Predict the 3D structure of the following.
Amino acid sequence: MTIENVLHENRRIAPPADFAASVKWTKEAYLREYRRSLEEPDAFWSDVANELTWFTPWTRVLDWQAPHARWFVDATTNVAYNALDRHLAAKGDLTAIVWEGEDGVVTRTTYRELHAQVCRFANALSSIGVSKGDRVTIYMPLVTEAIVAMLACARLGAIHSVVFGGFSSSALSERIKDAGAKVLVTADGGLRRGSAVSLKASADTALQNASSIEKVVVLKRLGTDVAMQEGRDVWWHDLVEGQPSEHQAVPVDSEHPLFILYTSGSTGKPKGVLHTTGGYMVGAYLTMGAVFEPKDSDLFWCTADIGWVTGHSYVAYGPLLNGASIFLYEGAPNHPDMGRFWQMIERHNVTILYTAPTAIRSFMRAGDEFPNAYDLSSLRLLGTVGEPINPEAWMWYYKTIGKERCPVVDTWWQTETGTIMLTTLPGAFDAKPGSAGLPMFGVAPDIVTADGQPLGPDEGGFLILQRPWPSMLRTVYGDDERYKKTYWGELPGMYFAGDGARRDADGYVTVVGRIDDVLNVSGHRLGTMEVESALVAHPAVAEAAVVGRPDEVKGEAIVAFVTLQAGATCTDDDLRRHVAREIGAIARPDEIRFAEALPKTRSGKIMRRLLRQIASGQETSGDTSTLEDASVLDKLRRSPGVTGN
Ligand code: PRX
């Protein structure tokens, strides 16, 4: 395998002529509507929203009391109604979900069947006391029923909080407590790399100190033996037994919360990002439609887990709101080998693939023989999300997977933005490998200095968004101060994304990465704080500092500097296992360096900049005059690095 060295980044890839000729969103259509979305936002958003069903109309499109927005004020609607009922007459028999288990089992669910399943589960949840405003935590493998559970909550006006099935029991417990969830929906387990992941056992541990949960609904995915607690736990199949397959979707206010999704910040515990109904629905509907333009003949595969925002907006809500057919795969990309994705694309005729740069890089590394062994001619469009994509990986994706026939869209957005904010529409503009590109409708990005001054072309600075958009987060659940401070406090009047970026003379934005203490490991956001807290919770650890080091496949690798309690001993493997238990395998440090002391300022602040330089093998540079004990740096540089994973 060769890796192309792209020395000049001004390469442009034009959309194939037949693709460009087939799209609704041409360059002219985009330019006209983008302009209208900024100049006449009320008219623009009303037109989009009117493509969906509302039970009561809005009195105003936007009420903006910075930094709090209310969109489609006073309107009522229901997202599940729009994702399902709205399509029944025209698309009842169209496939909504093709699901493949890691063991190769395949199920197909039509829109009519999905509607019936969601109605039955909504009735079932209602029978155990779930109603509007209640929080329901979902901790499941990637199975059709996970989407059923989300939509059933939406139908009832209950607020779902999906927790990634790879998170540990303590991470789950913390999220249940923060949300004050009443019901937990889980499964006996799921399959990952050929083995069973025991979700129910992990949930049981989590529930030992999460007392808000009254009922646990357990899906039988594997048929393994699990302990069921009398009075608290109930099997999914028993609960839906006899429930009617009709259910009247509950009309909720446009600003009624739809879901909470926890994400990492630079300080403290994970933030419960809160999204509401009307604006999120309109954003997910519009962006899915504009970027991917799914047709009935398409099979759309977004490879994210529903535990992440990408899974919310482009596995579940966006595609279903557009009446698209989606593909869902439960397991690991390398099971039984690195050809699994390509084999499934051939077998199911997947037409649109939306995945992460980290996955692309690991496929690229595995070798072209895997994709080359399969017929990928069903593909017509490719997308990436989650982290910056390096031009070599972009070109590999474009050539080896897309055979230079399929446009590649690089989409920048965040848990907080809810939906895609930057991308070049695939039939409208040339792609520039490595650059996310142009703003979506209603999005006004800018690149500014630390004090908010706009920067010129190609100057690097902070990425900000200048006005509210429908799918923006509304607050941090239970902590509005943190919302104001984190996102709107840094640069008054501007939404601060926490990313560094630059913009070229054509207006294409290239996002280069986080500027706060947040790592992006395989496209997942992890706060250095969370990993540090997990480390110091180990009895042998006195202090820990965690930094990222550039990694060819994962984007960033986690390096932890640890000092031990006097007289204590433990190995790096002990600590790595400990972090995996506390947070989940994704947070397991790649390298642990034991040190006698950490570099600190005289006021006791750990100098991460220096640790980052040491972790990536660079010379330490910059100002070290505030360092309390300069000899610490030498010792750290000499301390043996232990690499693992
Ligand atoms: O740093 C940016 C990076 O991922 C962060 C958002 O992470 P999360 O909330 O977990 O959502 C991921 C999926 C939307 C951003 O602040 N990021 C996401 N997409 C891109 C990206 N960086 C560069 N290019 C992208 N296309």
In short: The pocket of adenosine-5'-monophosphate-propyl ester is lined by residues 263, 309-310, 385-388, 410-415, 436, 497-499, 511, 513-514, 520, 525 (CB under 6 Å). The chain is about 30% helix and 25% strand.
